[in-house]
Amino acid sequence: MKKLVICIILLCTLTLFVYAGDIKRKVLTIKNAVALAVNTSEELKIGQQKLDKMNNTYKEIRASVFPQIGGEIGLDRYIESPVLKINFDEEEIEMPLKQEWDSRASITVSQVLWSFGKVFNAIKIAKRVIGLERLSIEATENELGYGVKMAYYTMLLAQKTAKIAERSYENALKNKVALKTRFKSGRISMVNNVKMEADVAGRIPPVMRARSSLDQATIALKDLLGLKEKTSVILKDDFTTNFPKYDFQQVKAKMLTREPIVKILNNRIDLNELVVKHRKYQFYPTLTGFATYNYTGTSENIFYTDDMSKEIIAGLRFNFSLWDGGLRLSAHRKALNDKNIAEIEYRKKINELEVELKSTLSKYNALIETYRACINAEKLAEESYRVTLSSFKSGVVSQTMLNDVDLQLTAAKLNTLSTLYEINLLVAKIDKLIVQCQK
User: Fold this and answer.
1) CA 387 to mean position of chain CA atoms
2) Do 137 and 177 reside in the same domain of the chain?
């Protein structure tokens, strides 16, 4: 029996050791959490592919600036050769124009000489779209950094909330011990005993809810960072209590010059102006220079011919459309509509961001004052609980009063924590608006 118990203990120890070996610990600061999210983000990978695609489109458009060289090699067999009929002295003579086999080879070089801005404007449009794709990646990184901060602070809030709930439960157990100490010389009444047991039991559900919230917050952060389920996450950074001071005009100026969405909308206006010009240029012709070298021959023998001729052609071509039923005019007007829409969206976004910034800074300043009041209330609640517990042990105050003071202390701690959490979220939001998310 003794050997069996020893074997079971060794087996359990080995199992725990193996399980612990599978768990990896990940110590996270906000900075390296953001960096980890950037490295694993699928959205950023998609954005990079779109940027690469646009770079290739730019090269494709730019290629039209350079000479285009094409060639052709062909071999034809005439099953029935065309003939030239000639009437000579009332006699019709047929002369074949082609022999059985006809071979040819040619090379053509063409170069756009003048397109009235169509080609170079298309290149400018491609460059502008590349810039927009880069800004889109920057905007995604900015939003991702803000999202990581939110998830990080939410998990930190859940951890601290769980500790406060556990501390409240521990205080209930201390109160229970104090009750026994108070009545150690006599029997505890049933009312007091049941009341104390109810107080202790009432602290268990908040602890369980807090632990569940912590689990959910941990899962959300791991998913955002691409960490495995078995990875143990340790948060190194705490909530900041050194609250920066913000001046609305300074923050607004930074926001309007740094915020990626603002830059995207501003660049989209420039892009649409280029598109308007591009549509206008479609009304103009295109001048192209070309040169062709032909080497042709005909023979009755597929493998040999002595009847080969050379031909060199060079010239200019004007390509233009006389009438398209109003297609180009409609495209030009549609481009003007897009430009006007882009300008309206830009002004609308600026107004929205200014209102958002004012609201955020107003709430931020109010919460700082609230936090100071919460700190003071928490200190008073701590002192009140300490004095009440001492008085309860000596029989001066009732059990109900002790429980109320304990709950007041727990509520004060939670109020302080939630206010600090909201302030840190607002700091993260302001950082996002002025693009200061840590990388």
Assistant:
1) 53
2) yes
